[in-house]
Amino acid sequence: MEERRGDVGIGHGRTAGPGDGPPPAAVGGDERRRPGGTPYRIVSFVGRTLRGEWHGMVVEPFRQLLRRGLSGLVLAFVAAFGVIFFHAIAQHPTGATVVRLTGGVKAALPLPLALLRTPVSLYVPALDLPVWAGITQLFLAFALAELALGRARTLAIAYVTTLAGTLTVRVMIAMGPGWSGLGLPSETGQVLDTGPSAAVVGLFTYLAVVRRAPVVFALTGGSMVWESIVRPNLAGREHLIAVAAAIVLGLLHGRWRRPVRALRVLLHSRRAENRPTGGPDLSEPPAPPAAAESPAQAGAPAAARPPALADPPVPAHRVNEPRAQLR
Questions:
Q1: What whole-number distance in Å separates Cα of residue 206 and Cα of residue 245?
Q2: How confident is the model at residue 255 (pLDDT cuts 50, 70, 90)?
Q3: Is the pLDDT of residue 24 over 70?
Q4: pLDDT for position 56
Q5: Residue ranges of the alpha helices (H) in the chain?
Q6: Cβ(216)–Cβ(57) under 8 Å?
Q7: Is the separation of the CB atoms in 102 and 117 below 8 Å?
Q8: Phi, psi of 122 (to 5 degrees)
Q9: Residue 166 and residue 122: Cα distance in Å, rounded?
Q10: Distance, CA of 107 to CA of 111 (rounded, Å)
């Protein structure tokens, strides 16, 4: 039979030549299935980052809230109601004096007195900031931190970041004016330094570092930098110091356990070396107690006691009998 010209081709008895090329379906198959290029990679990276940030900053705390209930928001309620309480009593002359004596912190105060007033100063609202707008940020910061970190760590981060700003301002005042704008004049020591803003900024920054949330970090740190540029004041410097302290604490998150564990092992080994060696060896098991003697044996004299492993006595009529030899 003659085969027609139209049937002659790849798969009909003729092999593909070097100039035939791949079939049309194979051309650009990978490119059609896989949308490549730099824009796709950028969009994919941004999507994964936002999804992880949403999961770490919203989904996980919300699950903790469903599991723990309102007991997981104790610090948030205490902080919000504390600010409202101190703001309310500060509207009266007597109450303002009480607030100033219990929570008013200045750099000119002695350091022990300032450290004593610092925990209360977290609930004293600043004079130049809106109270009700700051309460929302305060409640949200303490709520997310308590659900994600726990109460003890939340209080520690809030206090350390606030204290870092207070102590650093004292160092800047001691440096004096100059130092490329880093130092502060002595008149700054009379400025009232209160409010939970440094704690709020520190908590948001710490959460952003620990949970790897670049958007929250950019909004928190970027807003503080912008505030210090547009409106340079004492609060702006303290906010920047709180951000820096929170970044350091966030980078050290989970890494303090190894040095503590190594210190415990070292102390345990030194205690083992200093332990006295003259006492009994506790590594060997104690010897079993001897079998108790019967009252009859205990009361008999030593000579009358029969030996435990001695041979039985031989009768007198069998003394001279020859013994059988074993073969």
A1: 9
A2: low
A3: no
A4: 82
A5: 29-33, 38-54, 60-68, 74-89, 93-103, 111-121, 131-149, 151-175, 197-210, 214-230, 234-251, 257-274, 295-299
A6: yes
A7: yes
A8: -65, -25
A9: 12
A10: 8
Rounded to whole angstroms, how far apart are CA atoms 203 and 246? Answer: 7
Chain centroid, CA 253 distance in Å: 5
Residue 176 has a pLDDT of: 81
Q: What pLDDT score does 156 carry? A: 92
Give the whole-angstrom CA distance, residue 291 versus residue 9. Answer: 104
Q: Is the pTM of this model over 0.85?
A: no
166: exposed, middle or buried (C-beta count within 10 Å: 0-12, 13-18, 19+)? buried
Residue 104 has pLDDT above 80, yes or no: yes
Task: Kindly state the tokens that stand for 46.
Answer: 């941004």
Which positions ≥6 away from 310 have C-beta within 8 Å? none
Residue 202 · residue 243 · CB < 8 Å: yes
Evaluate whether 169 touches 107 at the Cβ level (below 8 Å): yes
What is the rounded distance in angstroms from the CA atom of residue 28 to the CA atom of residue 34? 10
Tell me the mean pLDDT in the region 271-294. 55
R_g of the chain computed on alpha carbons: 41
